[in-house]
Amino acid sequence: MSERARRGRPGHDQQSVLRVAVELFNRQGYDATSMGDLARELGLTKSAIYHHVPSKEHLLESAVDEALDALTASLDEVGATTGLDAGERLRAAVRGSVVVLVDHLPAVTLLLRVRGNTPTEQAALQRRREIDHRLAEMVREAAEDGAIRGDLEPLLTSRLLFGMVNSMTEWLRSDPDVQAVADAVTTLAFDGLARR
């Protein structure tokens, strides 16, 4: 083996450190997890962990940004899709949020657990509020178009719809059939449980 191949710290890149950190934050809680805990989980010394990442807050920011960026991109894609009426846009937004949750389950789980205790958490909560308002606007437009019932407050409807999606972080396990889950959620949300 050449000298060049032996250099560096094998086995861990920033993504693998982030993945392990998110698992640990979700298991123990962000506040209860130290960089020493993360180093032990990775089999590194406490000082060696800083070779890979600058801080615990940086890891949190990277994780919640992953979830928020994916949600924002999904909504942007729905908004940019031509030929959809307001009801179809809302249905696509719900479906997209299911796909994002499944594809980024650990990061979304962590995002849903932040409480605003740090600047990173406060920024994440602000971005979540912006997404909530975008979704509420989609609900309002769908109600105005007659695609969904209009007698419920749009922000409440939005929170109930996406609360159903977000609740999947509590029971969903790895490797589900993403399309089947997205179909079930959108069918339940828009067609209900009543037999037709």
Automatic annotation (TrEMBL):
Keyword Transcription appears in the UniProt entry: yes
Keyword terms of this UniProt record: DNA-binding, Transcription, Transcription regulation
Residues in the DNA-binding region annotation: 34-53
InterPro entries documented for this protein: Homeodomain-like_sf (IPR009057), HTH-type_TetR-like_transc_reg (IPR050109), HTH_TetR (IPR001647), KstR2_TetR_C (IPR041490), Tet_transcr_reg_TetR-rel_C_sf (IPR036271)
Species name: Nocardioides potassii
UniProt name for this protein: TetR/AcrR family transcriptional regulator
Key word Membrane present: no
Matching PROSITE patterns: HTH_TETR_2
